[in-house]
Amino acid sequence: MTQVEGGPMMRSCARDNMANGKTISFKLEEKVFGIDRKQYLFKSDIHALCMMTELSGGVICMYICYLHEVLKRAKMSHMVSFVDPSQIGALGSGNTTERLRFLANRFTTAEKGQIFLLPYNAGNHWMLTVVNPDEETIYFMDPLRRRLVGGEWQTVVENGIKIYNAQRNRSGRKSIVWQNMGGIPAQQNVKDCGIFIMRYMKEIIEDKNLSFASKWQRRSELIYTQKDIDAVRSEWAKYMMKYHIS
Length: 246
Description:
Adenoviral Proteinase, Chain, alpha/beta, about 15% strand
């Protein structure tokens, strides 16, 4: 594994300062996530990112905070927004109705043509869903390159869009369009799905044309090198160091 900029400092911070249950807290703002709350990171979260093992929602939320700042600098906040993964995941996020209503309410904040990035955890696996609620188009990205085949997640997202349409008094499409992004780089082992969806989000927001669909829709031989993955880890590490431990 290559050296990550900020990595040694990050590991030292976790080892020396986060013993005895100490945490790093940061705020999730409603305008970024659709909910206003505090999020906490533990020593185990930092260790997981350093070792590229299974990531928590807190790690992904912190990276979203960083990405939102990138969007603001690029004057693209009106083009891309996010959804708090803790409100939509398969476990611990309430029943199906609660989750889809949260999504519907989140979509009501959409500006014209804005897309929403939804990191979704199916229980032990991260996937990324991108929703354009105005166009009623959904882009599905599973780092294992599997297609979405019905199920609860499809119900949650589609009904979230339908409620959003009802709130806006419009009929909407007869059937909502799902597009499988079969050309995304596939994860390399069973536990790095979280870092891969972070990299997908990075690429999406760094493209001012938001042309991810044309790039990833068809099967391809695209891969992420260790350098590609380490770029995400370095960004996360540098951003994390601005927060205080309590």
